[in-house]
Amino acid sequence: MVINFFKSVARVIALCSMISLIHGAQAQNFSVIVDTAIKHQVIDGFGAHQSDEDINNPWLSNLYFDDIECSIYRVDLTPRLRSPYADLNYFSPWFMGSSVKHLFNLEDPSNPNGPEGNRVRTYTGPQDYSRTFGGRNAPIAVMGPNIEENIPYFVYAPNLIIQQGLAKSKKLGGFKLIGSIWSPLPWVKVASGNVYRENWWPGPVANTAWPFIWGGNFAGGRLDVSNTPLQVFNDQSMGGLGPTSALTQFARSTAAYLFGYQRFHKVEFYAISIQNELNFEQFYNSATYPLSSQYIAALKAVRAEFDKYPELIHIKLMGPEDLLGGDAYGMWEYGSSNGPIHKNLQYLQAISRDSIAFHALDFHCVHGYASDGVTSSGAQPNLWNWWVNGWNNSPSAGIPSNIKGFTHYQKKSWMTETSGEHPDWLYPKQGFPGDGALGLAIRIHQALTTGMESAWIYWTFSDSDNSGKVSAYGLTNVSDQANSPKYNAAKHYFKLIRPGSIRIGTSVNGTSSLLVSAYMTADRQTLALELINSSSSPQQGSIQIPEGINQFARFTSQENAYWQSGNAMAAQQRLTIDLPAYSVTSLVGKRITNIQLENLHTNDCKISPNPISNSSNIDLNINQGDYLTIKLLDAEGRVQSLVISNQYFPAGKHRIAFPIHVARTGLYFLEISGQQNYWVRKLIKL
């Protein structure tokens, strides 16, 4: 094993000067400098969400952990209840089979729109959640002060991804389970004043007021944070003091559901968000917190409840998990007929002004759906810049000046959801192809560099459209698996930038269409470089590499050729590289120690004369007899001729005549290998 290691290292050292000289005469588009003295954020990892039946398919968990090597998994924490609280899909119209005659059955021709003609069950808050609907009354599960008595209200299902993540945690560099609450329990929500605007069957009828239940989904509405005790939440029979508030019920139910979740799966959550996309009411599980004060009340209540239990106190709270927004208003505040809707940076400002809330929120998270910066080669992502740095001067009318970005608060940020790309590598086919897999790679780059994100999590790992192709919302599917273009674009970052790596400084000269980022492991032994050529033309250039790192594994993806592997070598801390058009290239190198380098710098093998016209001599000093093979290789490592094959040489000095039979002038190298000896020497053919 030791001699094999030195063989590979020696070959690298000998080859790198040759490659540098070969390419030095060619025109170069760019130069890159990697600066280890400049340190940015620590990378916590990469991952995705998955919630359908695929969570228990071995192909997915194997791909997720063994191939792309995700280290983060995101789950939906909308509480799921047992009977009778979950009967008839939470007592709402839904599908029951065409043969079933039932008032709640949307497949019954007599009742295509449900008991009230809107295909949902509406309510306005806790007080009328259990109102008579179609002859039924949906019950409320009141949470008492004893968490052990609250846990049995909830149900859980097996999840192979979680189990495999735990089993492979050490190999991955750690496994982090995170979750987001899409909606709290429905009866703790009240009317938001908004209505559903669309109209499609079997979806809700247009202008239906939020909140409502639709096919088991707790759709829309806002959490009641008034802290008003209500008789419907009387916990006296459970050992409590009487009526409690919706806010108390929210905190207790969240704690109980997570406590049970951890116990069922034998796992601990790393972090949760108390609301996914906190002002984005939808027909699926959702809720809104239009004002920062509402979110802060919920945040403090959950933190206080978690801190009561040793099993929950470790869980970090991240937030506010808003959509990044499409303009400056999407970063600060929207207006509506019901009043202002706070956005990203306004939440952060308000949280910072409440000391309890500020300490309750461990780190920030955001959903990166904004497309600015991926519309053309070299475009700048202004929204990410605002999220990081805020602004000094007001960017639009009605928006205040001197607003801070997340870095001001000295807490990290994660990008916890995005999607929307076409499954092809290049899309659209005309103009800049920023909406396909290449665009996905650009989005990751921008989030990690301009956005300073410490983690990047895709919406859904596996998802198919109606035709069976990878959808706009998934990285791959059961058909494409590791062959999906989007999957491979993500793989360059997910697999090769390991948890705990630090993003370090890079600078690019000569082109604006090359996007570069670099990551060094905490022990400073492994360097990962990510290069995106966002130009329609190939580019060639050089990279200045930190000292002691010479050999790199190379992985390149371009249209119709994904994850193509090879090697690249640096000479005198400089590596020359060719990048195909519209491609992603990753370089991963390990540092060579001083002891290893000293063992390579020997005088036991010399070639003279060198440069060579027709022939030369190889002088060897062999310490131990060995069977040697000598090959002449070109700069790409291809064998040009076999000089000697498995010939025995006793210990001592030897001179071997070496005629060179190649027509092309330039640089080559001679590889001399045996069981106990290994040399690589460069030579120049005149």
Descriptive report:
This protein has 686 residues and is α+β, with helices and mostly antiparallel strands. It folds into three domains: 27-42 and 500-595, Golgi alpha-mannosidase II (Immunoglobulin-like, Sandwich); 45-81 and 141-183 and 220-494, TIM Barrel (Alpha-Beta Barrel), CATH 3.20.20; 606-685, Sandwich (Immunoglobulin-like), CATH 2.60.40.1930. The chain has 15 helices and 38 strands. Strands 29-28-31-26-25-24-1-27-30 form a nine-stranded mixed β-sheet. A nine-stranded parallel β-sheet has the order 21-18-15-14-7-3-2-22-23. The protein has a four-stranded antiparallel β-sheet with strand order 35-34-37-38, covered by helices on one side. The protein starts with a helix and ends with a strand. Mean pLDDT is 91; it is low at 1-26 and 593-601.
What best-fitting shape do the alpha-carbon axes yield? elongated
Average pLDDT figure: 91
Number of strands: 38
Percentage of residues assigned to helices: 10-25%
Low-confidence stretches: 1-26, 593-601
CATH architecture of the largest domain: Alpha-Beta Barrel
Structural class: alpha+beta
Work out the strand percent.
Answer: 25-35%
Record keyword descriptors for this entry.
686 residues, alpha+beta, Immunoglobulin-like, 3 domains, nine-stranded mixed beta sheet, nine-stranded parallel beta sheet
Provide a short characterization of the protein structure:
With 686 residues, the protein is of the alpha+beta class. The protein contains 15 helices and 38 strands.
Q: What does the secondary structure layout of this molecule look like, with pairings?
A:
Layout: H1 2-24, E1 30-42, E2 45-49, H2 58-67, E3 72-76, H3 87-91, E4 121-122, E5 132-133, E6 136-137, H4 147-150, H5 160-167, H6 169-172, E7 176-180, E8 189-190, E9 212-214, E10 217-219, E11 222-223, E12 230-234, E13 243-244, H7 246-265, E14 269-273, H8 292-306, E15 316-323, H9 329-332, E16 333-334, E17 341-342, H10 344-352, H11 355-360, E18 363-367, H12 382-389, E19 390-391, E20 403-404, E21 413-417, H13 437-448, E22 455-462, E23 474-476, H14 485-494, E24 502-509, E25 514-520, E26 526-533, E27 539-544, E28 549-558, E29 561-569, E30 574-579, E31 583-591, H15 594-600, E32 605-608, E33 615-622, E34 626-633, E35 639-649, E36 652-659, E37 666-673, E38 678-685
